[in-house]
Each structure stands twice: as C-alpha cells, then as structure tokens.
Amino acid sequence: xxxxxxxWTLAIAIAITPRALFSFEPKSNNDTELSPKWRWNLDVxxxxxxxxxxxxxxAHHGSAGLPPLYHEPLVVYDDSSTSTSRARRRxxxxxxxxxxxxxxxxxxxxxxxxxxxxSLSERRKVMPLADYVREHVLATEVMxxxxxxxxxxxxGETYTEKWKALLDGYVLPPCQTCExxxxxxxxxxxxxxxxxVQWHVHGPGFSESVHGRKHWVLYPxxxxxAEFHKDNSSRAWMEETYMDMVRxxxxxxxxxxxxxxxEEGEMIYFPDMWWHATINLDRYTVFVSSFTTEHNIG
Length: 298
Fold this sequence. Notes:
Blueprint: E1 51-53, H1 54-61, E2 74-77, H2 85-96, H3 99-105, E3 111-116, E4 124-128, H4 129-138, E5 152-155, H5 161-167, E6 184-191, E7 205-211, E8 214-219, H6 234-249, E9 258-262, E10 267-270, E11 275-280, E12 285-292
Parallel strand pairs: 1-2
Antiparallel strand pairs: 2-10, 3-4, 3-5, 5-6, 6-12, 7-10, 7-12, 8-9, 8-11
C-alpha cells in the first residue's frame, strides 16, 4: 500500500449578491469550519490500486490509451508538459468549473436535476444550481448517520445542451474506446464534504476529480460487500464497517476493498460491473465520469 501526504483544498467563503450570487475568496488551507471529524485518517489513506502516469500509460498501451475491458482498476495521474495542447485544455476546464465561474456560466435561476445518493439513485429533485451549491455543497456536511436516500446530489442528470457546451471543453481519458465517436457518455457532478454514492454497480469507465479529493472503494463483481444498506451513506460504511474490518484484520486484511483517494486532477478507471462507492473529502468537489462502451470493441 502507498501512503502519500494529503492537503485540503482551499475553503470557500460565500458573499451573496442579487445577480452574481456567489463571490468566493479562498481561506487558508487550515480552515476548520465545517471540517468533519473523520474516524479514518485522511492524510495516510490506504491505496492498493496501481497508480500510473499518463505518459507511462501511453508508453505501455500505445497512443490510443487503455484497451477495452481492462481487468482491474487504475489510478491515472497527469504528468504531461504544461505547454501541450492537452494540458492547456485541462487547465481551461479546471478554471471554468471553479465554484464562482461555474455558477456564473449558467443563466440566473438555471435549474438542475438532483438525485438521491443511495445505491439506486431513484429519487429526483429540481432546484436552481446556485441554491444547490450554496445549500447542499458549501454549507452542508454529510455525516455518517445521514441517510443517502435523503441526501441530494448533482450527478448524471447533465445531458442538456447547456451542460454539453460546458463538457465540450473536457479532455477525454486516455482510452481506446474514448477515440470512437459516440462510445463515451460524459456525466458532470458536484458534491460537498462527506457526500458520495453508496455501493452500486454498472458498466466500465473513468472518473476524474477536477476539483477536490474523492475516495474510492471497489470490489470485484463476485465479491460480497459486507454489511451495507442501500439507504445508508457511503461515509457510514467507510467509518463503521470498514473500520471494523481494519481493527479485526489489520490494513492488509483480505476482506478489505480495493481503494484509493483521487487527488485533484487524477482519474480512476473502474472496470465493468465492479462494486464501488465514493466519498468526497473536500468542501467543493467537481468530478466528470466517462462511461465507456467497451464490449465487442478491440
């Protein structure tokens, strides 16, 4: 397992004005307002997933990137030169999705569809984007006893023309499927500290943490996930069930999941039909998932 120092992203202050609803100024990195009292150490997070640089992935798999239906998770970090076109586009998208820039990019009162953050994401709610960011992201902390079927989350319901215009600036992951027109569907998400989605499964793809850090836990398809309820929070599973396993088996216990924390700018490949759950660790977390069609390709 690899442990690396973690750093909190800048906290955000809110100033409300009639049209420009948000004016954000960063506080110091050690700001503790709303900081959760985690039961696991965020600064020495266990990572047993292979980490590979963008350039090494290309060198190993070729310029087209990762082949379809890769057999295990990978964490990909960017080491490309800042002078490249790819790096410039990534920097531009990062700036466009900062908290203040993102809210200002959409019309006043622009509404988004939220989903519940439980395993099935079966509930829906519509509210203005600015209100969601202010009330459910910056001012709310999802605690272990929060119910995921009562916790609202912006993710996956971002397919309108306005969202497509924003996502046109996103740099696709390095994968062979991503090179095929129409084989990748993008989904944009925003979450606050402690939020995330409870254990679930679906097809393969990538997910990048554009702003903030996100912790991922995964199990292979045939593995049984211990003691989770679809309507409890993913943070509850991590702080209770996971910590019980660590205490019983140690950090190398065979029942522990594959896991890693994505730093800002890193992405994970999640294989086809692997169980996974996520927990956002910072106050403003933006992520983009690329759902790829990988069957019968290659």
